[in-house]
Specification:
CATH superfamily of the domain at 43-172: Jelly Rolls
Number of helices: 1
Order of helices and strands: EEEEEEEEEEEEEH
CATH class of the domain at 43-172: Mainly Beta
Radius of gyration: 16 Å
Structural class: mainly beta
EC number: 5.1.3.13
Strand content: 35-45%
Protein name: dTDP-4-dehydrorhamnose 3,5-epimerase
Function: Catalyzes the epimerization of the C3' and C5'positions of dTDP-6-deoxy-D-xylo-4-hexulose, forming dTDP-6-deoxy-L-lyxo-4-hexulose.
Largest sheet: 6 strands, antiparallel
Bound molecules: dTDP-4-keto-6-deoxyglucose
Helix content: under 10%
Shape: globular
Catalytic activity: dTDP-4-dehydro-6-deoxy-alpha-D-glucose = dTDP-4-dehydro-beta-L-rhamnose
InterPro entries: RmlC-like, RmlC-like_jellyroll, RmlC_Cupin_sf
CATH architecture of the domain at 43-172: Sandwich
Length: 186
């Protein structure tokens, strides 16, 4: 099996994971997560909740979401079907890259996954129809601690590849970031 490779990004802790896989005449076997291999990302990495979303139409956007402390969460994201423009925004109070975003294209055929540390907001745009995304969460979902940003928030300036579509009422109604927003301490 090809070894897993970790790639840093300009946002400290946000890491691209080139998952280990082996291909043969039958197809491909991919190791999505291994405690030992990904210990370097976060000691004691543990995922009490795993979610799966299916998005039907190209251009649809889900997010940007995060959870406030004490329910702040890191996420490991894997595209299982189609292709997405996956975005993480640094919300960590005092971070030198506060409110900066970074995006990566993930697709079901490639080895790339992304690890998003606690303190980041996450969202994605479907670049194909029929997208499925797998999320491994380091915290349980807590409606009381949910936070959200509008994907078109002018303070973020995210360069989405396609016109935004199919936002949920929650995402479309997300309040713009106030000038006084100082971030979260995960
Ligand atoms: C996350 C979650 C949600 N829910 C309920 C809440 C809503 O009634 C429904 C859909 O949740 P939401 O509209 O937040 O789903 P998305 O807009 O697809 O958000 C997801 O996609 C973006 C990109 C993310 O990063 C979030 O982690 C993830 O929540 O499931 C649950 O019951 N359990 C859960 O763990």
């Amino acid at each position: 099996m090809n070894p897993v490779r970790l790639h840093a990004t300009p946002l400290a802790g946000l890491t691209l994971i080139e998952a280990g896989s082996v291909s043969d005449a039958r197809g491909r076997f991919t190791r999505v997560f291994c405690e030992d291999e990904l210990h370097a990302l976060q000691p004691g990495l543990h995922f009490p909740q795993i979610n799966l979303s299916a998005t039907r139409t190209r251009g649809s956007v889900r997010g940007l979401h995060f959870q406030h402390p004490p329910a702040s969460e890191a996420k490991l994201i894997r595209c299982l079907r189609g292709r997405v423009f996956d975005v993480a925004v640094d919300l960590r109070a005092g971070s030198p890259t506060f409110l900066r975003w970074h995006a990566v294209e993930l697709d079901a055929e490639g080895p790339l996954q992304v690890f998003i540390p606690a303190g980041f907001a996450h969202g994605f745009q479907a670049l194909s129809d029929e997208v499925e995304l797998l999320y491994l969460h380091t915290a349980r979902w807590s409606r009381a601690h949910e936070g959200g940003l509008h994907p078109a928030d002018p303070r973020l300036g995210i360069a989405w590849p396609l016109p935004l579509s199919n936002l949920s009422a929650r995402d479309a109604g997300a309040a713009p970031l106030g000038a006084d927003f100082a971030g979260i301490t995960p």
